Automatic annotation (TrEMBL), chains A, B:
<dbReference type="InterPro" id="IPR046335">
    <property type="entry name" value="LacI/GalR-like_sensor"/>
</dbReference>
<keyword id="KW-0804">Transcription</keyword>
<feature type="domain" description="HTH lacI-type">
    <location>
        <begin position="11"/>
        <end position="65"/>
    </location>
</feature>
<dbReference type="Pfam" id="PF13377">
    <property type="entry name" value="Peripla_BP_3"/>
</dbReference>
<dbReference type="Pfam" id="PF00356">
    <property type="entry name" value="LacI"/>
</dbReference>
<keyword id="KW-0238">DNA-binding</keyword>
<dbReference type="InterPro" id="IPR010982">
    <property type="entry name" value="Lambda_DNA-bd_dom_sf"/>
</dbReference>
<dbReference type="InterPro" id="IPR000843">
    <property type="entry name" value="HTH_LacI"/>
</dbReference>
<dbReference type="GO" id="GO:0000976">
    <property type="term" value="F:transcription cis-regulatory region binding"/>
</dbReference>
<dbReference type="InterPro" id="IPR028082">
    <property type="entry name" value="Peripla_BP_I"/>
</dbReference>
<keyword id="KW-0805">Transcription regulation</keyword>
<dbReference type="GO" id="GO:0003700">
    <property type="term" value="F:DNA-binding transcription factor activity"/>
</dbReference>
<protein>
    <submittedName>
        <fullName>LacI family transcriptional regulator</fullName>
    </submittedName>
</protein>
Length: 339, 339
DNA sequence: CTGTTAGCGCGTTCAG
DNA sequence: CTGAACGCGCTAACAG
């Protein structure tokens, strides 16, 4: 029974039954809380099982159950900051029950994705969650996959698939509405890479909120990259072009940090002179910013939980399709608060 | 064969055999590349398998193989930045073969850990990697776990277990040696929470390097918290106490960012006046810092790969115990470069 | 209440 | 080269 070297084979139900002096069927029923077992017998079996550290073999159980109680989580953004909270939400939703999660990282590679897909199907997962790295639609795995699939973050390009995505338009809108509520009227928007749907969607939301208030963005949407450096450069350009700006919607928390730094370098006071709001509510960026950054939380964990819940329902048989969006929320902090 | 709603049961080997007009045994041999099968027969079987999208059932295979080809990854730091690269390294090492990874997040909770442990053992994983959230030793799962276990990041408190940990003493040493090489002599150390072994180990390494050069730290090790705010405050205190400082070893990249910000606020030029080095080489922190931050990379991915490799060897039967440290490396950037 | 029998999907003997 | 029989660990259906 040493740790290093030879391992002992796990205890089987048969052994438990033998030690308890009953048949395997009785032992099975006793341990699974089924009726028609004498209380004394049940207690005896349970005691033996406990003593032998019996752990039922889920694989064997899966054979008859027709379900393995496992799901695959196929991500393309393991190192990124989006799939992690999604993963946690899903793990949370599954972990409460008796479902285990296979994690696979395909790293944006279609071949690796195919490889992992085969492996997961070979392990007879009951379902799949596919997590993309961008909010742009991604190719569907197709209707021929033998198990239910839910797409998270990146929706499937097939509307008949089930997808759960962040609502970036609303995010842009509520960020802007928050600024409008504070009385800001001359609002600029420094965003990330324009090839990302997330950037364009947020910009659209910003535009909607302004239009509803009879206002316009000060200057064009300044697309760039998702970096602090761009935040610094972008806000500089915006201020130079239009000095009277009283608020900036930054395309992400990283951009927002850059914006805050550049404003401080210029001697502009936040939030008194200019209010700043970011997106993602990403703790590491938020924690260090001066002042603390108001940010729109996309509720990724909720997204993961919803994906898991929908997958569960699909596995249980309920039909379900279409894209579901997760509502974001504004988390107010010092970069807009005292304005 | 619709996606939503009823799913078709996966194709079995039996069906393939029937469609190909052969026995299951023949079909099995044909698909597994075994000898004693007529080439024509083999091709026919392969063709049918392909047409029916046959995916061999890994669970059934596991029955005879005695191994499931799965491992459990039990982490306590899923949202943290340490377990992720470890996870990626492990996933990388396993993914190349035919091993799948069950991911469980126990969140520092012993009960949840026990729950997940039972679930994983029930699924008959071939082995386990346990990832801690701190480098302080953690309780061993004990010698009674039926499968090999490798501890990563946090070592087991039982020296007979196999552990893979970062080498924080060396990290502190090489960070300081790098500064000494640049001619810096008056070095301060602003670190994180002193209750973390990581903080104390790095400080020890810093001290070793200085002692070897016949020098001493300027001021005490300034322990605080792992935050930018503390980096700003800590370096301020250090400068006020001893104005002649020409380099700062920061306890983490986040602390280093705070240090950089405070120095810039004070009009101190980096790296000309003061050089700064951080730890972890954490991309999000590195990316935005001004100037780019020199940092000690703890090589977490290597750690994950080593953990996976050692686990593999243990599963294959080789005895293996003891703590293995992963060598860190200095990544030089602007915060020390032109000094 | 308890024991017996069958069978889940596959690989692996062993006879043919 | 092929086919039938066995076993893995467990549960469901039925018999006692």
């Amino acid at each position: 029974m040493t740790t290093t070297g030879g391992r002992s084979r796990p205890v089987t139900l048969r052994e438990v039954a033998q030690h308890a002096g009953v048949s395997v069927a009785t032992a099975s029923k006793a341990l699974n809380g089924k009726a028609d077992v004498h209380p004394d017998t049940r207690r005896r079996v349970e005691e033996v099982a406990d003593r032998l550290a019996f752990t039922p073999n889920s694989l064997a159980r899966a054979i008859t159950a027709g379900q393995t109680g496992t799901v695959g989580l196929l991500t393309h953004d393991l190192e990124g900051r989006f799939s992690l909270p999604i993963l946690m939400g899903a793990e949370d939703a599954f972990g409460a029950g008796r479902t285990s999660v296979f994690l696979c990282d395909a790293r944006e590679d279609a071949i690796r994705e195919q490889h992992h897909l085969r492996a997961l199907l070979g392990r007879r997962v009951d379902g799949l969650i596919v997590v993309g790295s961008k909010t742009d639609p991604r190719p569907s795995l197709g209707p021929d996959v033998a198990v239910p699939v839910v797409y998270a973050y990146a929706p499937s390009d097939d509307p008949r698939d089930a997808s759960v995505v962040p609502d970036n338009v609303t995010a842009g809108r509520i960020a802007t509405e928050h600024l409008l509520t504070l009385g800001r009227r001359r609002i600029a928007h420094v965003s990330g890479d324009a090839t990302y749907a997330a950037a364009r969607d947020r910009a659209e939301g910003v535009g909607q909120a302004l239009a509803a208030a009879g206002l316009e963005l000060v200057g064009p949407v300044r697309y760039g990259s998702w970096s602090e450096a761009w935040g610094r450069a972008g806000v500089g350009a915006a201020l130079d072009a239009a000095p009277g700006i009283d608020a900036v919607v930054a395309g992400s928390d990283q951009i927002a940090r850059g914006v805050l730094d550049a404003l401080r370098d210029r001697g502009v006071t936040v939030p008194d002179d200019v209010a700043v709001v970011g997106f993602d509510n990403w703790e590491p960026m938020i924690a260090g910013s001066r002042p603390a950054l108001t940010s729109v939380d996309m509720n990724f964990e909720t997204m993961g939980r919803r994906a898991a819940t929908r997958l569960f329902a699909r596995i249980a048989g309920s039909p379900d399709e279409g894209v579901e969006t997760i509502a974001p929320r504004v988390v107010v902090r010092g970069s807009t608060a005292s304005g």
